[in-house]
């Protein structure tokens, strides 16, 4: 089965073709709107929707051409239906449903975070080749600009929330912290780049909610601590790098501590990490060390598939289409959507 996947949940237009017979991607393409939104310091929903309209069909044509396929060769379609920006979601859903109707092919609405969660299962971990993708049961850390969650995964579609952020997500905290220190948009990658130059231990910030039981997160207080440190510093380039390093270390330590607790609670030795913050080099190193020390395993998607992309949607949709799940012809999206409500395969 050749499944065309479409991702338009926020500010990136992603398209991919996943071939279940070959067990691999045929092609994938991504267009980022970063330059469009940079002057506003954040995503403008109306502009995001309009840019998806402008770029989606050309990307579909490009992806099909690179995969050596015609549109009639598509066996099924998968599209992000939520969570996300409602206008952006409707663009992808409308195009996918229209193609499904015109081609008389099945289509499936994909939960954006399930796409992230399953991305590490799509191919071998590039940093651990030959071992094969992880298989449930495992614990998943979903860590991005909009979500920070720990999920016990018993099987595809059988998810149990262990903990989540009570305020800012980790990626959101990265972006906001970068902005308050005057770094350009998008702030998260800029702050991580600054942290690479920073000296460890010059600024040490609290590891929030690690001194109490439970698996929930909170990063808003950490953001305030950084604000105070930046205000009282000399605001030099060196100060900015050292504060960025202190902030990044605090986030990485917090995530690692909670992940280890989640593995203990779930009685599991396999951790899967997905979402944009999963591309952070220091987080990857820390979690890999934790896994080795425990005699377990941690698996990441390749960095290009940590951020929003069409490949993860094509793969997640292909699993559900193969199981006989599909949607009717209605165009529906869910800006808020509980992943626990998804049907099991």
From TrEMBL:
Biological process terms in GO annotation: tRNA threonylcarbamoyladenosine modification
Matches recorded under PROSITE patterns = GLYCOPROTEASE
Top-level enzyme category: transferase
Transmembrane stretches, start-end = none
Kindly give the InterPro entries that the UniProt entry links to this protein. Answer: ATPase_NBD, Gcp-like_dom, KAE1/TsaD, Peptidase_M22_CS, TsaD
| Cell compartments where the protein resides | Cytoplasm
Mind listing the GO molecular function terms for this protein? iron ion binding; tRNA N(6)-L-threonylcarbamoyladenine synthase activity
Which cofactors does this protein require? Fe(2+)
Q: Which residues make up the binding site for Fe cation?
A: 112, 116, 308
The residue ranges of the Gcp-like domain are 26-315
Q: Which UniProt keywords apply?
A: Acyltransferase, Cytoplasm, Iron, Metal-binding, Transferase, tRNA processing
Protein family: Belongs to the KAE1 / TsaD family.
Entry protein name: tRNA N6-adenosine threonylcarbamoyltransferase
Its source organism is Lysobacter spongiicola DSM 21749
What lineage does UniProt assign to this protein's organism? Bacteria, Pseudomonadati, Pseudomonadota, Gammaproteobacteria, Lysobacterales
Name the gene that codes for it: tsaD
